[in-house]
């Protein structure tokens, strides 16, 4: 007892339609895409009373290297609205950076921007990339996020506002452009 070509075709079409509906129903409701621009200051303090970044590892040649090649630091830096330490805190930059250049001062940055106030409170952005710290403007990729920034992508432009060569303390201005969905996904 065989099936006709028509019966098989109708069965396959109905099965594909059912699978497509199941896939659509399982897709999170993300809302339309939007672009957000964020502006804040990053305070990286290696010395003083409120240290925000500490060295956790180094290579045998790190101290004799102009670039501190091999130095690994963990950070929990402040993010503020303005460049002053007393400016309103908007969040923290948590992660690590590694001195990865032997001839030039380049850092590999692995950073999570954790927003703790305002409309992005509870959301994060993830940044991973090379920071050529003595370039006037550095561009680093935004590779993801959480909360309002779930599935985010974009870029961060960093510009040094103040750098103390003796202490290593720095305040860096960040302008971040992010493509993300208009509301957090509802599953």
Distance between the termini: 45 Å
The total count of helices amounts to 1
| Series of secondary-structure elements, N-terminal to C-terminal | HEEEEEEEEE
Tell me the Rg in angstroms: 23 Å
Question: What is the beta-strand fraction?
Answer: over 45%
In terms of structural class, how would the helical and strand content be classed?
mainly beta
Report the major sheet: 8 strands, antiparallel, barrel
DSSP helix fraction? 10-25%
Approximate shape = elongated
- Provide mean pLDDT, rounded: 88
* Unreliable stretches covering 5 or more consecutive residues: none
Number of strand elements: 9
- Biggest β-sheet: strands ordered side by side in the sheet: 1-3-4-5-6-7-8-9
Describe what this molecule looks like in 3D:
It is a single chain. By secondary structure, this protein is mainly beta. It has one helix spanning 5-26; strands spanning 33-44, 53-57, 72-80, 89-99, 106-115, 124-132, 138-146, 153-163, 170-181. An eight-stranded antiparallel barrel has the order 1-3-4-5-6-7-8-9. The protein starts with a helix and ends in a 6-residue tail after the last strand.
Please name the defining characteristics of this protein.
single chain, 187 residues, mainly beta, eight-stranded antiparallel β-barrel, 9 strands
SSE layout:
Blueprint: H1 5-26, E1 33-44, E2 53-57, E3 72-80, E4 89-99, E5 106-115, E6 124-132, E7 138-146, E8 153-163, E9 170-181
Antiparallel strand pairs: 1-3, 1-9, 2-3, 3-4, 4-5, 5-6, 6-7, 7-8, 8-9
């Amino acid at each position: 007892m065989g099936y006709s070509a028509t019966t098989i075709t109708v069965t396959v079409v109905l099965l594909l339609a059912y699978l497509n509906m199941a896939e659509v129903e399982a897709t999170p409701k993300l809302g339309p895409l939007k672009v957000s621009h964020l502006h804040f200051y990053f305070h990286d303090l290696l010395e003083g009373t409120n240290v925000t970044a500490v060295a956790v590892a180094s290579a045998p040649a790190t101290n004799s290297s102009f670039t501190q090649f091999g130095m690994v630091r963990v950070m929990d830096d402040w993010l503020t609205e303005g460049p002053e330490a007393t400016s309103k805190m908007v969040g923290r930059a948590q992660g690590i950076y590694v001195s990865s250049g032997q001839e030039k001062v380049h850092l590999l940055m692995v950073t999570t921007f954790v927003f703790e106030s305002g409309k992005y409170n509870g959301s994060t952005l993830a940044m991973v990339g090379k920071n050529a710290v003595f370039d006037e403007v550095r561009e680093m990729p935004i590779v993801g996020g959480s909360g309002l920034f779930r599935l985010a992508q974009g870029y961060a432009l960093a510009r040094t506002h103040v750098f103390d060569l003796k202490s290593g303390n720095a305040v860096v201005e960040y302008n971040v452009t992010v493509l993300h969905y208009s509301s957090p996904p509802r599953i």
